[in-house]
Design brief:
7 strands
Length: 209
């Protein structure tokens, strides 16, 4: 009986995982080199590695040996395990289905603004916390143009129309409009032009260290 040819390469999964590891190592090497303001040629002179080899390592195009990684760790004054940080970290994704956002109590709640938190990731490698909200304004909502908090906020208008104040300026927001601003300045809906109004509010700020 003639054996049928395999349609799948049994080594494919392994090679893919190795490639991800190579890219993760390369990113860490590049990040630490740039952080210390060391050029590729300077690192090459310090380690004895060629510029071409360093380029391949930083671009994830080769698998450096442990000896090479140890040499790089000494040159960059970082622990050897630092190079595996990006590969070992867990990446989180939060899927919130329609209507399942958690209703939150925030400053605007007292003005009958409904806040639904669509997801939240606390500690992460980026050093930034992002909180996406779906905000709904109804006929019972009050204007409240004096919100003030840390971070950067982005508003994307989905439905209705509001005149939104930021500092000393008022912006007319209609479906499809975006407003990106420093949230330390007083801000909020000043005139509810067309209701109901819904918009996404995405707030980002540095996590505590």
């Amino acid at each position: 009986m003639t054996a049928l040819p395999l349609n799948q390469d049994p080594h494919r999964i392994r090679e893919t995982r190795e490639k991800v590891l190579e890219v993760a190592i390369g990113r860490e090497v590049r990040a630490h080199r740039r952080k210390q303001e060391i050029t590729v040629s300077e690192l090459a002179a310090t380690t004895g590695l060629s510029i071409g080899m360093l380029s391949k390592i930083e671009n994830g195009n080769t698998s450096p040996s442990l000896t090479t990684l140890q040499t790089l760790s000494h040159a960059l004054a970082v622990p050897l395990t630092t190079f595996f940080k990006g590969f070992e970290e867990k990446r989180v994704a939060i899927h919130t289905k329609a209507g399942e956002g958690v209703e939150m109590e925030r400053e605007g709640t007292r003005a009958n603004h409904q806040y639904n938190l669509l997801g939240h990731i606390g500690s992460n490698s980026s050093g930034v916390i992002v909180e996406p909200y779906l905000i709904t304004l109804s006929d019972q909502s009050d204007v409240f143009p004096t919100f003030q908090h840390g971070g950067i906020e982005t508003i994307y208008m989905l439905e209705g129309e509001v005149n939104y104040r930021h500092g000393d300026k008022v912006h007319s927001l209609k479906p499809g409009d975006t407003l990106f601003f420093d949230a330390n300045s007083p801000h909020g809906p000043e005139v509810l032009v067309k209701l109901p109004a819904r918009y996404l509010s995405i707030i980002s700020y540095p996590q505590d260290t």
